[in-house]
From TrEMBL:
Signal peptide: none annotated. Residues 14-370 form the Glycosyl hydrolase family 13 catalytic domain. It comes from Microbacterium helvum. This is Glycoside hydrolase family 13 protein. Keywords: Glycosidase, Hydrolase. InterPro entries: GH (IPR017853), GH13_cat_dom (IPR006047), O16G_dom_2 (IPR045857).
Length: 463
C-alpha cells in the first residue's frame, strides 16, 4: 500500500497541548501557574483545545497544513503519556465537542490532524490497572498487564512491568487479544472523530505483529490515513509496507544540527550522510518521513544554536529542502528557548513583541518557497558539498523543474553554483528564498545568512 499522497505536500506543526494557548480559563486546574512561569515536569498552565483552535491561523501562517498533537486523553500529568481513559479528552483540555470543533476548524483551513498513539503503556490511574490493584488475581484485567505478584507494589521497585522503570507507567501486555482489541478500538474511535493519522509512541517496545494489526485497522478505514513511528535509530524496519508510512527522522536531525549548530561535521560528511540515509529508506517511503529539528523530547532549536538566529535558519533551510515532511515544534518559529524536558515544554508567548521577527519571517519565506515549488516537495533529492562549509541540496521533479538549496556556514560567499553543467544548461534560474543574488558569471552571491533557494524549469518548458 503506498504512502498517503498528501504527505509529499505536508508541513507539520507539533503542539504540546498544555503549553500552547489557554482558550478556556474555566478548565484551568487548581494551582494553575501564570502563563509565563518556568515549566516543570509537574506544573500546569491551562493550555487547552480551545486555545489551539483560536490560534489555527498562526499555524497556517507559517506554512503548516498538518498538526501533530502529543497526547490529549484523560491523564494525571501535564504530558498525558499516562492515559487513564483513551476514549475521553482530558477534562483540562476540553471535551469531545471541543475536540470536534478543533478538528472541524483545522479541516476548514486544509489542516490535517495526527494524534499520539501511546499503546506501550498507560497511567497507573487507568481503570483497568486500578481494577487489578483492587481485585488482584481475581481481576478480569489481570492479564492485561504483567504483574509479578500481589499486592501490586510501585515502591521501592514496581512488581509489574513498566515503561523504562517508571512506576506510574504500567506496560500493557500487547500479546493479550483483549488488549489488542481495546487498542484497535481506540484507533478506530478517533479516526471516526475525524483525525487523519497516528504517531506511534515508542513502538519499538511492542512486537511487530501488534503493529501489523494496527496498520490493518487504520488502513481499512482509509489508505490516506498516516502512520508514523517514533524511531531514534534505524528507520528501515518500519518501512517495509506492513507497519508504518514513515518514521520521525531523528537521523536527519542529527546530520543537520551536526552541520549548522555543532560544527561536528563538515559539508562533505553531511552530504555523504544525507545520501546514505536516502539510500537506506525504501523507495516509496521518502515522502512519509517526518523531518524534525526539535520536539518535546529535545532542547529547543535556538538553544541548540546558542541563540544564533542565522545558524538556526540555515538548519531550517536544509529541513525545508529535504525529502519528507518538515515539522516545526511550536514556539521554535518565534525563537522560544529552553533545554530538554522540562525546559523545552515552556508556554507559547502570544505577545508578539517577544518574538524573533527575523526567525519567523525566515521560516515563512522558506515554507512559502516549498509551497510554491513542486520540486521542493516532490523532487528526488541529491546532496553535494561545494567546500567544507557549503552544502548544495538538489531536488529534481519529473516534469524537469529543479530546485536547489544552498547553505553556507559563514558571513556570505560567492558560490559558483551554476558552473555545474547539469544545473546550468538550458535553464533560467531565479532566487525564490534567502538573502541571495545571481551574478552574471553564474555565481550565487549569498548574504550574511548564508542561505539561498533557486528554482528553474528547462527553458522550453517556460515557453
Amino acid at each position: 500500500m503506498p504512502t498517503p499522497d498528501w504527505l509529499a505536500d505536508a508541513t507539520f506543526y507539533q503542539i504540546f497541548p498544555e503549553r500552547f494557548a489557554n482558550g478556556d480559563p474555566t478548565l484551568d486546574p487548581p494551582g494553575v501557574e501564570p502563563w509565563n512561569a518556568t515549566p516543570t515536569r509537574e506544573n500546569f498552565f491551562g493550555g487547552d483545545l480551545a486555545g489551539i483552535t483560536e490560534h489555527l491561523d498562526h499555524i497556517v501562517s507559517v506554512g503548516a497544513n498538518a498538526i501533530y498533537l502529543t497526547p490529549i486523553f484523560e491523564a494525571d500529568t501535564n504530558h498525558r503519556y499516562d492515559a487513564k481513559d483513551y476514549f475521553a479528552v482530558d477534562h483540562r483540555l476540553g471535551d469531545l465537542d471541543a475536540f470536534r470543533r478543533f478538528v472541524d476548524a483545522a479541516h476548514e483551513r486544509g489542516v490535517r490532524v495526527v494524534l499520539d498513539a501511546v499503546f506501550n503503556h498507560c497511567g497507573d490511574g487507568h481503570w483497568a490497572f486500578r481494577d487489578v490493584v483492587e481485585n488482584e488475581a481475581a481481576s478480569e484485567y489481570v492479564n492485561w498487564f504483567s504483574v509479578e505478584g500481589f499486592p501490586v507494589t510501585p515502591h521501592p521497585k514496581p512488581n509489574y512491568r513498566t515503561c523504562s522503570g517508571c512506576y506510574y507507567l504500567p506496560k500493557w501486555n500487547a500479546y493479550n487479544p483483549e488488549v489488542r482489541a481495546h487498542h484497535y478500538s481506540v484507533a478506530r474511535y478517533w479516526i471516526e472523530q475525524g483525525i487523519d493519522g497516528w504517531r506511534l509512541d515508542v513502538p519499538y517496545f511492542i512486537n511487530h505483529s501488534f503493529w501489523r494489526g494496527f496498520r490493518d485497522v487504520v488502513k481499512d478505514l482509509g489508505d490516506q490515513l498516516y502512520i508514523v513511528a517514533e524511531e531514534w535509530r534505524e528507520p528501515e524496519e518500519w518501512l517495509q509496507g506492513d507497519l508504518a508510512d514513515g518514521t520521525m527522522n531523528y537521523t536527519l536531525r542529527d546530520l543537520i544540527l551536526g552541520f549548522t549548530a555543532d560544527s561536528s561535521i563538515d559539508a562533505l560528511a553531511f552530504a555523504d550522510g544525507m545520501n546514505t540515509l536516502r539510500a537506506r529508506i525504501p523507495e516509496g517511503f521518502h515522502s512519509g518521513m517526518l523531518n524534525l529539528l526539535g520536539s518535546h523530547d529535545t532542547e529547543r532549536l535556538l538553544t541548540r544554536h546558542r541563540g544564533d538566529v542565522a545558524a538556526a535558519l540555515r538548519a531550517y533551510a536544509l529541513l525545508f529542502a529535504a525529502e519528507g515532511a518538515p515539522m516545526l515544534y511550536y514556539g521554535d518559529e518565534i525563537g522560544l528557548t529552553g533545554e530538554n524536558d522540562p525546559g523545552c515544554r515552556g508556554t507559547m508567548p502570544w505577545d508578539e513583541s517577544e518574538w524573533s521577527p527575523q526567525l519567523l519571517e525566515g521560516i515563512r519565506s522558506l515554507s512559502g518557497a516549498r509551497s510554491e515549488c513542486p520540486a521542493l516537495r516532490r523532487g528526488v533529492q541529491e546532496v553535494r558539498a561545494i567546500d567544507d562549509d557549503t552544502v548544495l541540496m538538489i531536488r529534481r521533479a519529473p516534469d524537469g523543474e529543479t530546485s536547489v538549496a544552498i547553505v553556507h556556514r559563514g558571513d556570505g560567499a560567492r558560490i559558483p553554483i551554476l558552473a555545474l553543467p547539469d544545473l546550468a544548461s538550458d535553464r533560467t534560474w531565479q532566487v525564490v528564498a534567502g538573502d541571495a543574488t545571481l551574478a552574471g558569471d553564474g555565481s550565487l552571491m549569498l548574504g550574511t545568512g548564508g542561505v539561498g533557494y533557486l528554482n528553474a524549469f528547462p527553458n522550453e518548458a517556460q515557453q
